[in-house]
């Protein structure tokens, strides 16, 4: 019978191999940043140029398979009223 330590290791390895662990970490990171963000101080409206820059950065992250970083950026952009172009 497997020990608790062996079971924990097996679950962790399975979650890592499926990419689930990285997704969970990215989601937790995004939620922590969201919780720390001071919503009382409104952000200034983004210019067209800044919206374009943000979209280029997001596309770069996704193209290079930085999916979890892109998901954090996307969540932050949605909180600012951004809508994806693709």
TrEMBL record:
GO terms for cellular component: centrosome; ciliary basal body; motile cilium. Keywords: Cytoplasm, Cytoskeleton. The keyword Disulfide bond does not apply. GO terms for biological process: cilium assembly; microtubule anchoring. It comes from the Eukaryota. InterPro entries: FOP_dimerisation-dom_N (IPR018993). This is Centrosomal protein 20. It comes from Mastacembelus armatus.
